[in-house]
Task: structure prediction
Amino acid sequence: MEIQAKRFQELSLDELYQLLQLRNEVFVVEQDCVYQDLDGKDQKALHVFGKKNGQIVAYTRIFAPGDYFKEASIGRVVVKGTERKYGYGMDIMKASVAMVQEHFKENTIHLSAQVYLKKFYNTLGFEQVGEGYLEDGIPHIGMLKT
Result:
């Protein structure tokens, strides 16, 4: 998997279509969650994505401090269902953490994690902060890496 990072304006139409399709495939269809994915924040984000054979199979979007949370943040972490057995989730997250450090010169990173992924994020140095909450009907927790 080849990982790239691009600002919204740098994405090709094909890349934008693929990343939106992947987010919809997993967050809306697979997780059976009707929510507004197009939230007006993509234009502020740095989009980090992994391609395999020309197709986006892993993705996150990252934000500078203050653009989403007070701290720099990573969100919309997603890996195509058929590609999860290859460790691409870990690869895209490590790349995203590195991109936050490189582009925003920040080491403190906030994310809103689905509860079932807590251990996954713990292995990357994220710790739970605060109480759990529902986001779009799915249990989430705030997590912070310092």
Q: What stands out?
A: The helical segments are 13-30, 88-104, 118-122. The beta strands are 2-7, 46-52, 55-63, 72-79, 109-114, 127-135, 138-145. The longest strand covers residues 55-63. The chain has a mean pLDDT of 95.
